[in-house]
Amino acid sequence: MPSSTPAMSIDKDSKNKPGNLPWVEKYRPNKLDDLISHDDIIKTINKFIKEDQLPHLLFYGPPGTGKTSTILASAKQLYTPTQFPSMVLELNASDDRGIGIVRGQILSFASTRTIFNKGFKLIILDEADAMTNDAQNALRRIIEKFTDNVRFCIICNYLSKIIPALQSRCTRFRFGPLDSNQILPRLMHVVEQENVDITEDGAKALITLGQGDMRKVLNVLQSTHMAYAKVTEDNVYTCVGHPLKSDIVNIVKWLLNENFTSTYKKIVELKLAKGLALHDILTEVHLYVHRIEFPPEILVHLLIKMSDIERRLVSGTSEDIQLSSLIAAFQPAREISTED
Q1: Quick one: how many helices (H) and strands (E) in the chain?
Q2: Looking only at Cα atoms, what is the longest distance across the chain?
Q3: Average pLDDT of the segment spanning 42-55
Q4: Looking at domain 258-337, which CATH architecture does it have?
Q5: Distance between CA 178 and CA 38 in Å, rounded?
Q6: Domain at 38-174, CATH homologous superfamily
Q7: Cα–Cα separations (whole angstroms), residue 239 to 151, 215, 228, 232, 276
Q8: Partners of 125 in the beta sheet?
Q9: How are beta strands 150-156 and 121-125 bridged, if at all?
Q10: Spatial distance between the Cα atoms of 183 and 280, rounded to a whole number of angstroms
Q11: In sequence order, which residues have a C-beta less than 8 Å from that of residue 17 and are 6 or more positions away?
């Protein structure tokens, strides 16, 4: 959680930025001290910078957990605004980063020194798990050969997609999903700055949907604020097309108490009226089922059937057929509720 002083500096910076910026960029931290989580990683990188001993870095973890913000804040701490353009090369997944770019642009940037700027340059390779193996292999020699002139920061979501030779040349840091108590202060800071009318259940819904992804939380907050006068739980779920809690309660009630035809018809009508995806319904039904006191053998049966349905949905099968499977999966549970 940021201290009061860095928070004030964020306010100044955010007010100076254009008003049409997405809130994710408008409130991106400018200093390492402004970051809201991963204290151990921030302390370590701060120590590297202060002692001028920054190694090659490898940041990995789920999206929206602060990987890019951390290295950009580090770069702004290392270089002045005038030095930044000539000392930092940032390549994203949207850029071509095949073997040609590695041997051309990256090699050229790494091998040249700037006349007026002392110290090392910084090359940031964002979404590096999208790089080909050939490009990653070509990078190995550049990292070793030009270490006295340049430092690399490789950022990825999946560590397994980075070749072992690159992993061994970097100091690795894992960025885990953010906790709700880390997200909430920054969320409320943005709400205060933007004068958003938000309810307590609306904030909880944003954090639940975000699942530790700060970027997603802010994007959904901005979308809901633009679409509705007030950010409530129902408005948040409606804005992203996610089933409401009341909808899930009704669906489970239909699955357990009504006949096949009636249940199928009601769920299809609900899906069409609210634009819901069966995959989202299935995920929420799965969470809800755990709170119902079913006999163990019924619960196991339901979970196995729902996992099979999810696998088939991901494979691209028809939602109508899988909806029929979901209703059929509840037949043993329906028989028990009828007996009771």
Answers
A1: 19, 5
A2: 84
A3: 89
A4: Up-down Bundle (1.20)
A5: 9
A6: P-loop containing nucleotide triphosphate hydrolases (3.40.50.300)
A7: 42, 16, 9, 10, 11
A8: 91, 154
A9: parallel
A10: 23
A11: 25, 26
CA distance linking residue 306 with residue 316, whole number of Å: 15
pLDDT at 19: 60
Cα–Cα distance between 12 and 180 in angstroms, integer?
A: 26
Q: Indicate where the chain has its CATH 1.10.8.60 domain(s).
A: 180-240
> How far apart, in whole angstroms, are the C-alpha atoms of residue 142 and residue 320?
53
Amino acid (one-letter) located at 178? L
Class of domain 180-240: mainly alpha
Global pTM reads: 0.77
Other beta carbons less than 10 A from residue 217's beta carbon: 27
* 237-285 per-position pLDDT tens digit: 988 888 888 899 999 999 998 889 999 999 999 999 888 899 999 999 9
Sequence ranges of the chain with CATH classification 3.40.50.300: 38-174
Backbone phi and psi for residue 48, each to the nearest 5 degrees, phi listed first: -55, -45
- Under DSSP, the state recorded for 179 is P
C-alpha to C-alpha distance for 142 and 251, rounded to whole angstroms: 57
- Cβ atoms of 32 and 45 within 8 Å: the answer is yes
Residue 108's region, left for phi above 0, alpha for psi from -120 to 50, else beta, is alpha
Q: How far is CA 55 from CA 156, 168, 212, in A?
A: 17, 12, 28
| Tokens, residue 254 | 């239909």
Residue 153's φ and ψ, nearest 5 degrees, are -125, 110
